[in-house]
Write a structure and sequence with these properties.
The N terminus is likely disordered. The chain has 16 helices and 20 strands. The chain has an eleven-stranded mixed beta sheet. A five-stranded antiparallel beta sheet has the order 7-6-5-4-8. Strands 2-20 form a two-stranded antiparallel ribbon. Strand 9, helix 9 and strand 10 form a beta-alpha-beta unit. The protein has about 525 residues and is α/β, with parallel strands linked by helices. The protein starts with 7 loop residues before the first helix and ends with a helix.
Length: about 525
């Protein structure tokens, strides 16, 4: 008996080595017989604020860039090319722009565009600018400090003079803005009359809006979804597991019904043949709201009308706050889903008040909403409503894996920084002694020699530290470094994630790897005075 008995440590060790290995078949979901294993670091869900899933009665999702992860190399390039064409053919820019190309890896989220000066900035959580480029030219430290450091009043770096690059869809327009800045600097006669940097940014935004308004982008995606959207086979099992656990599920998207239906059919594995519409994916939701106009949707005083969508025709039917009502010329309500094999109802417009009523939500803290947009999805739903939130950060998967690989390098950087501090303290003490202490001439000469040696040593350590730090950051991104860090401080983007996202993870289907009743707990917070004491 004793020989067959396994202690708690043995069981935990066995559990920790039972890593979810997909073997080419996709990750095992938690509810499967093979589930409940250690989760790859790139697939984990990270917690900023305690969240007990047992208290959640409804889980909601955004669609674009959340359930539907677009491929940047195809979709962002499509958006870039469409924007270029609008600039040339609709807004009068030089035809030379049509020959430009897009590097989809260059820009990252969390950057700030200085519209007036044509600069692209990366700053830390205190809003200090640490990396700055004018177009594609790196600004010198003197220019950077002179522009953003030597002011009597701290700049807020907010609209209208600045633009935040906080969505993946913004990366193409940020890249195009940098190209236009360089183009204007080199060939001022080739840009429209009176087009300064601010005007050019405004024109880029107008061109992007034109691409959305005429449906160019979504028509291309609808023709061949697999070319533009990652096929995540874990989405359906995740939705099934959440519903089997007794929770309601809902979808709130700014996309309209026709496009939503095409994308969700693709994600749920049903391919449409052009003439035939399939609505089986609706079985995984209780409520679908299209054309929601977020973030305005999240304001409870929003008075937008709520229309019910007839899936087969796309026709909008009047409702009384979600309750079916007779249409003009009829005495009884028309039920759009009659005959369909689900109970999901599809709407357009409305507000969060309508959604709460449709799902019988008693407290906003009972809702978990998953989105990709720090402002459009997460900030408003968290700050205004008090919903619990999960932010999808696709870049995180690569970032955390690199962090793991570079953990020894990071330790070495800390040691070099401590060495610099120690040498500088000794230099300050020697300088003080030479200036104020009554030392003999021969002692003074010895101290001066020691000081010179220390200053030489300090310079060597400083250069080694700076080089090592730059090499480390460039492993993440050649220009902008680590997404969540700026130097030794959390980046502004990381600060926003920490403030407004209860949970964050690399992709939405990572929810399928955890129990639907899991209690997510954050790691302990540490202040600077605790690190040395606790041996961090």
């Amino acid at each position: 008996m004793e020989g067959n008995h396994k202690g708690v440590d043995d069981v935990m060790l066995q559990f920790q080595h039972k890593v979810c290995n997909d073997d080419g078949q996709g990750l095992f979901i938690w509810s499967s017989p093979q589930g409940g294993c250690q989760i790859d670091i790139g697939k984990r869900i990270f917690c900023n604020r305690s969240l007990n899933m047992k208290n959640i009665v409804a889980v909601g999702f955004d669609m674009d860039y959340t359930l539907a992860q677009y491929m940047p190399e195809t979709f962002e390039s499509l958006a870039y090319e469409g924007t270029i064409r609008k600039l040339v053919y609709d807004l009068g820019y030089h035809p030379e722009l049509l020959d430009w190309t897009f590097n989809w890896k260059y820009m990252v989220r969390g950057l700030v565009l200085d519209k007036k000066r044509g600069n692209i900035l990366k700053m830390d959580r205190h809003k200090y600018v640490k990396v700055a480029y004018h177009g594609f030219r790196e600004m010198s430290k003197e220019d950077k400090v002179g522009t953003y450091g030597n002011t009597l009043t701290r700049d807020s770096f907010d609209e209208p003079d600045y633009a935040l690059i906080d969505t993946l869809f913004s990366l193409a327009e940020a890249y195009l803005f940098a190209q236009l800045v360089d183009f204007r600097d080199k060939y001022p006669s080739k840009v429209p009359d009176g087009a300064d940097y601010s005007r050019m940014y405004k024109d880029v935004r107008a061109a992007v809006d034109l691409c959305h308004r005429d449906g160019t982008l979504k028509q291309m995606v609808a023709k061949d979804p697999k070319k533009y959207i990652n096929d995540d086979t874990s989405i359906v099992p995740m939705l099934k597991m959440l519903r089997d656990s007794g929770r309601s599920t809902f979808l709130v998207t700014n996309s309209l019904w026709d496009y939503t239906n095409i994308v969700m059919n693709f994600l749920c594995g049903w391919k449409m043949d052009g003439s035939t519409s399939n609505f089986d994916w609706l079985q995984y939701f209780d409520v679908v709201i299209t054309g929601s106009a977020k973030p305005g949707f999240f304001h409870d005083d929003n008075r937008a009308n709520l229309f019910e969508v007839e899936p087969e025709s796309g026709m909008l039917l009047n409702t009384d706050n979600g309750t079916p009502m007779p249409q003009v010329g009829s005495t009884s309500p028309r039920f759009p889903l009659k005959g369909l094999k689900n109970t999901c109802r599809v709407f357009q417009g409305g507000s969060v008040g309508h959604l709460h009523k449709l799902l019988s939500i008693e407290s906003s803290s009972q809702v978990l909403y998953v989105g990709d947009h720090i402002y459009g999805d997460i900030l408003r739903s968290k700050k205004v409503l008090g919903w619990r939130t999960m932010l999808v950060v696709p870049e995180l998967e690569r970032e955390v894996k690199l962090l793991w690989e570079l953990r020894d390098t990071r330790k070495q950087l800390r040691l070099l920084r401590n060495e610099r501090d120690l040498i500088e303290d000794n230099i300050h003490h020697l300088k003080w002694s030479l200036k104020f202490e009554g030392v003999q001439p021969n002692e003074k000469q010895m101290l001066a020699t020691e000081l010179s040696q220390l200053e030489s040593q300090r310079e060597k350590v400083r250069l080694r530290h700076q080089l090592s730090q730059r090499e480390c950051h460039q492993k993440f991104h050649k220009v902008w470094g680590q997404l969540m860090k700026t130097g030794y401080q959390n980046s502004r983007f990381a600060h926003q994630v920490e403030r407004f996202a209860c949970l964050y993870t690399s992709q939405v289907s990572n929810l399928s790897l955890y129990s639907p009743d899991k209690y997510y707990r954050p790691s302990e917070d540490f202040m600077p005075h605790e690190f040395d004491i606790l041996g961090m």
